[in-house]
Structure formats: structure tokens, C-alpha cells
Design brief:
alpha/beta, 10-stranded mixed sheet, 18% strand
């Protein structure tokens, strides 16, 4: 880890991982997770390991004129996940590699630090699962995924009510709304396709200019209202087409894709969002594919959560993905 990344890095602490104990053959996440301080040592390489990495940052949300709070998301996600039942075999390992923070407001350096930790995890043959943070998480995460293979054809599945393809801010700065604009530019610079599938898009939450940009870049779109009317079939079909094209898939789950009744604790609550039963099959299908190389859950704002609904839903999505992915090992 570089000295610059160490400035933004904080190891996780055992006190976060608490929960019920029911004895043998009744394990929960808090009982199996292994904490690693990357300043001291790198966990041993494993072909059957997941790496939790927090991105405790909402600078991008503030730049995007959203309501802050997602910097506290990683801690709440860990706490909610800790008491979930563990349904993986003894060979599967779960590491918590700690957090990247952004206390100085320098989002770009924090994203670079996140990219380095993601790259460390992938080099150790661990599947990174990044806990956001605002959706600025995506740009840092993606940079880490391609750090050692910039010419690999990576597909992006964003389950989200927004495209997050806004123009960069003055001075070329990014925000929570520009991550996929930045990914598109990187792909073009490396002469690689921008293979972007966005599921759950809300027409009322995206301007005509954003739809035009998506069309220009050949983004495949599954709108939320179509899924509410027709179910998951169209989204599964689109995912299957992308799986055939791509070497690997990066999956991003923005919690504002869900209806506000299930996910009130986000930066931009969605009254017309999706129910969880339309999203769970997508994560299961992607996990079963064996092609997912990175997964993140973003935009949890605990200060606005009610009865832990959003953190509970988010942790259930994470646990579902991990359990299904582990079956492919």
C-alpha cells in the first residue's frame, strides 16, 4: 500500500462485528469474518474468498447537490450484515479489509486509494465487495478492477434509478452523478467497449439530455416501470446478452433503485422504485454466472433510515449475492 493510500485508509474494528451466537452449525457473518489491516499484512491468496472494502465518502453526493450521509454507510452495512446467517461452506473465506475515508474532501485521491485496495484484493484472488459511500464509489472501484488488466472487456451492470452519466464538474471534477461518464471515457481511452446495462431507470429522475447521452453511448436500458409491469424477464435477457459478450462483469447496486417504502435511507428516495423481489433474482442470476469480478452497494444514508429498513435490505442483498456466488466455487 502506498503512503498516499495509507492517508485515507482505516482498518476495521471487531466492535462493529457483533451479533447473536447459536453454537455450531449455526454461524452468522460476525462469527466468520476475518479482519485484516493492510498496513501490516496481506491476507493469503484464496480462490474462494470475498473482501469487504468500505468507501466512507459522500463528497461526491455533496458535489452533486444531494443530501449527505452516505459516509456512514459502510459501518451500518457491516452492523446489519453481521447478524445475517452464514450459508457458505467451510472453504469460503470472508475478509474485512477496512475503509477508505475522505475526510479532507479530496474525492479524487480517495477514489485512487479505493482503486489500490480493490486491486490488492483482486491480486489476492478475492472478489471485492465495496460498501459505499455515494455512487462516486463506482469510479474508484472500477479503476481497481481494471488496474492489472486494462484491456479486458468488462461489462457494467448498474441497478439504479439514475444513469449517473452527468457531465464532469468545472475543473474536470467528478461527483456521485459522473462515475459512469468517467468509466465511459476510460474505456474509450483504452480502445475498449463501454458495455453498460442500466436496470431500474426512472424517467422522472433522468432528464432528456441524459437519455440522449445514454443513446449516444449505446447504453442498454431497462426502465423501472417496464419491470413493474412485466417482471424480471427483460432484465434477465439483457444480462444474458451481456454475459455472452464480456469477459467479466462489474455489478453496482444503488439502493435508490428500491421503492422508498423499503429503502427510505438513501440520498434520493424513490416513490416509484422497485420492490426487492424484482432485484433479488437479478443478483442471483449474476452470481450464478461465475463472471462477476466486483460488486458494490452504495448510497445508504443511515441518518435518514427508518427502523433500519434500508440497511437491513442492503445487507440482505449482499448476503444473497455472497451465498449464491459461493455456490460457483
Amino acid at each position: 500500500m502506498t503512503p498516499e493510500t495509507q492517508r485515507y485508509y482505516e482498518p476495521s474494528t471487531p466492535i462493529i462485528w457483533q451479533g447473536r451466537r447459536d453454537g455450531p452449525n449455526a454461524l452468522r457473518y460476525h462469527e466468520v469474518v476475518r479482519l485484516a489491516d493492510l498496513r501490516l499484512n496481506l491476507p493469503p491468496a484464496s480462490q474462494t474468498a470475498f473482501a469487504l472494502i468500505g468507501f466512507a465518502c459522500d463528497v461526491g453526493i455533496m458535489r452533486n447537490q444531494g443530501r449527505p450521509g452516505a459516509a456512514s454507510g459502510p459501518r451500518s452495512l457491516r452492523q446489519a450484515l453481521g447478524n445475517r446467517a452464514w450459508h457458505c461452506s467451510d472453504s469460503v473465506q470472508l475478509y474485512d479489509l477496512g475503509d477508505i475515508t475522505c475526510n479532507d474532501g479530496n474525492l479524487e485521491r480517495a477514489q485512487t486509494a479505493l482503486a489500490e485496495v480493490v486491486a490488492i484484493a483482486t491480486q489476492a484472488h478475492m472478489l471485492p465487495i465495496v460498501l459505499g459511500g455515494g455512487h462516486e464509489t463506482a469510479w474508484g472501484h472500477f479503476q481497481g478492477l481494471i488496474a492489472h488488466q486494462p484491456k479486458q472487456h468488462i461489462g457494467v451492470v448498474n441497478i439504479d434509478s439514475h444513469f449517473d452519466m452527468r457531465p464532469l464538474l468545472e475543473g474536470g471534477l467528478g461527483s456521485s452523478g459522473t462515475s459512469f461518464t468517467q468509466i465511459a471515457a476510460e474505456r474509450q481511452a483504452n480502445q475498449m467497449p463501454f458495455d453498460y446495462l442500466c436496470i431500474g431507470i426512472q424517467p422522472l429522475g433522468n432528464t432528456e439530455a441524459l437519455f440522449d447521452k445514454a443513446k449516444e453511448l449505446h447504453v442498454e436500458i431497462i426502465q423501472a416501470d417496464i419491470m413493474l409491469q412485466q417482471g424480471v424477464a427483460s432484465a434477465i435477457t439483457a444480462i444474458d446478452r451481456q454475459l455472452q459478450r464480456c469477459k467479466g462483469i462489474y455489478v453496482s447496486l444503488d439502493l435508490d433503485v428500491f421503492n422508498a417504502a423499503y429503502a427510505p435511507g438513501v440520498s434520493a428516495p424513490q416513490p416509484l422504485g422497485l420492490p426487492h423481489w424484482l432485484v433479488t433474482p437479478l443478483l442471483q442470476h449474476l452470481a450464478h454466472s461465475g463472471k462477476v469480478i466486483g460488486f458494490d452497494v452504495v448510497e445508504l444514508s443511515p441518518a435518514y433510515d427508518l427502523d433500519g429498513r434500508t440497511s437491513g435490505l442492503a445487507s440482505a442483498m449482499m448476503a444473497t449475492f455472497i451465498s449464491e456466488k459461493a455456490k460457483t466455487y
